[in-house]
């Protein structure tokens, strides 16, 4: 009856004309249908290279900053713990020296 149902996903890229063709062939009935589709330029996302570079750089810089902050925090925490242990060790040494 001339009805075709086709479900297919395609990815198209912007071209000079933005005119695309869809062709369906039914070999058993020797039928063919063709449609031309015009897609406006507003449908295509334009990712400018400098914006992509900026986004990647900003993301990496943020990750580096966060990683550095965590590393510095852990180093300071470890240094304080070592100082505390050293003070306790000195205190215990002093106490043991008084007891002897």
How would you characterize this protein structure?
This protein has 100 residues and is an alpha+beta fold. Helices cover 51% and strands 16% of the residues. Strands 1-2 form a two-stranded antiparallel ribbon. The longest helix has 51 residues, at 49-99. It is rod-shaped, with a radius of gyration of 35 Å. The model has no long low-confidence stretch (mean pLDDT 83).
Would you tell me the overall average pLDDT? 83
Question: Beta-strand level of the residues, as a percent range?
Answer: 15-25%
DSSP helix count? 1
**Main β sheet profile:** 2 strands, antiparallel
What is the terminal-to-terminal distance? 110 Å
Structural class designation: alpha+beta
- Based on CA atoms alone, the radius of gyration comes out at 35 Å
Total number of strands: 2
Low-confidence stretches: none
Shape designation: rod-shaped
Sheet with most strands: strand arrangement: 1-2
Task: Provide the succession of SSEs.
Answer: EEH
Helix content: 40-55%
List the helices and strands and how they pair.
Elements: E1 19-26, E2 31-38, H1 49-99
Antiparallel strand pairs: 1-2
What would a concise description of this structure say?
By secondary structure, the chain is an alpha+beta fold.
């Amino acid at each position: 009856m001339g009805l075709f149902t086709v479900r297919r996903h395609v990815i198209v890229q912007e071209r000079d004309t933005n005119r695309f063709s869809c062709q369906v062939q039914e070999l058993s009935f020797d039928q063919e249908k063709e449609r031309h589709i015009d897609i406006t330029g507003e449908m295509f996302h334009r990712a400018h290279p400098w914006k992509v570079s900026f986004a990647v750089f900003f993301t990496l810089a943020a990750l580096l900053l966060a990683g550095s902050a965590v590393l510095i925090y852990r180093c300071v925490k470890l240094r304080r713990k070592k100082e505390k242990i050293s003070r306790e060790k000195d205190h215990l040494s002093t106490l043991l020296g008084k007891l002897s």
